[in-house]
Design goal:
By secondary structure, this protein is α+β, with helices and mostly antiparallel strands. It contains 3 helices and 3 strands, in the order E-E-E-H-H-H.
Length: 121
């Protein structure tokens, strides 16, 4: 029987300060991590977060919507052995389209923002 290789390695995860557009990797330890710029608590964003460029307003608006809905950027299974890619909107237009579907179909924000295809509703 083989042992999970991820169980023995402590991986760092992404934490984000959306107002400052800062992203840092810290240990996944449950501790509060503060933004190095404004000293506000950073939001856990997951293993697979890729920060947009600081000047990309559309993509940062999408990041804010995803994190505010309670979703994270994760592709890892709980133990880290497998990957199931999960969709997250990349632009504010994607967010608006999914929120229109949520209103029409009676979905909550998290369900709508996690839809890979708009036909899934």
């Amino acid at each position: 029987m083989s042992v999970c290789r991820y169980a023995e390695t402590p991986y760092k995860v992404h934490y984000v300060c959306v107002p400052c557009r800062q992203s840092h990797k810290f240990p996944w330890d449950g501790a509060e991590h503060l933004c190095t710029r404004c000293r506000a608590p950073m939001v856990f964003a997951g293993h697979d977060f890729a920060a947009p460029r600081k000047g990309d307003d559309r993509r940062w608006a999408a990041v804010a919507a995803v994190l505010e809905s309670g979703l994270t950027y994760e592709g890892f299974e709980t133990c880290g052995c497998g990957r199931r890619p999960r969709y997250r909107p990349r632009t504010s237009a994607d967010v608006r389209a999914r929120r229109r579907i949520a209103a029409r179909e009676g979905l909550d924000d998290a369900e709508a923002l996690a839809l890979r295809d708009l036909d899934d509703a």
